[in-house]
Design goal:
The chain is α/β, with parallel strands linked by helices. It contains 4 helices and 19 strands. It has a single domain (4-181), classed as Hexapeptide repeat proteins (UDP N-Acetylglucosamine Acyltransferase, domain 1, 3 Solenoid), CATH 2.160.10. It has helices at residues 4-9, 19-37, 43-50, 117-120, and strands at 55-56, 60-62, 66-68, 74-76, 80-82, 86-89, 94-96, 101-102, 107-109, 111-113, 125-127, 130-132, 137-138, 143-144, 149-150, 155-156, 161-162, 171-173, 178-181. A 7-stranded mixed sheet has the order 2-5-8-13-16-18-19, with no helix packed on it. Strands 1-4-7-12-15 form a 5-stranded parallel sheet, with no helix packed on it. A hairpin with a 4-residue loop joins strand 18 and strand 19. Helix 2 packs antiparallel against helix 3. The longest helix is centred in the N-terminal third of the chain and has 19 residues, at 19-37. The chain is globular, with a radius of gyration of 16 Å.
């Protein structure tokens, strides 16, 4: 039998009020709070703190404030930059390729709620993973919705809401984001 955490990560329906998940969200919140309070010149301390949450294989830059649900479902490759105010709701894996730049106040969501109002009353959630390719530029104030894949070398215009997959080498803008050119 799967644990609620295993169900959550695999995208199945799960109970977010599970005590283990509540404790893990609280841990991530404590680390993010400490991270966000560090001054700019404490970059090594901030880096050590955030590495307690996310998985990475190289240099990265995350300008505070930064918020996430768990952190352990975030996988970033080398030379990834998050500008100020980014939020990642990582109930499922979020994978971000190398040399990707993410603009300020961008939100990446993997968490979903049922469209059925009766099911929402049962405190049931599920998730869908998000994948962002290599050398992607996401403008400020963007929202990336659950289940989306953004291909390598793509550009997402500022203020866009990405509701569907964006192929490699594309420029997409708007709400919902539409491909403007390749």
């Amino acid at each position: 039998m799967k644990t609620e955490k295993e169900k959550m990560i695999s995208g199945e329906k799960y109970n977010p009020a599970n005590p283990r998940l509540v404790l893990e969200r609280a841990r991530a919140n404590r680390i993010c709070t400490r991270y966000n309070k560090k001054s700019f010149n404490e970059i090594n301390m901030r880096s050590r703190l955030i590495r307690k949450l996310i998985h990475t294989n190289g240099n990265f830059w995350i300008k505070p404030p930064f918020y996430c649900d768990y952190g352990y479902n975030i996988f970033i490759e080398k030379n990834v930059m998050f500008n100020y105010g980014c939020v990642i709701l990582d109930v499922c894996p979020v994978r971000i390729g190398e040399h990707t730049m993410i603009g300020p106040n961008t939100h990446i969501y993997t968490a979903c709620h049922s469209l059925d109002p009766n099911e929402r009353l049962l405190d049931v959630e599920f998730g869908k993973p998000v994948t962002i390719g290599k050398n992607v530029w996401i403008g400020g104030n963007c929202t990336i919705l659950p289940g989306v894949t953004i291909g390598d070398n793509a550009v997402i215009g500022a203020g866009s809401v990405v509701t569907k997959d964006i192929p490699n080498d594309s420029i997409a803008i708007g709400n919902p984001a539409r491909i403007k050119r390749k």
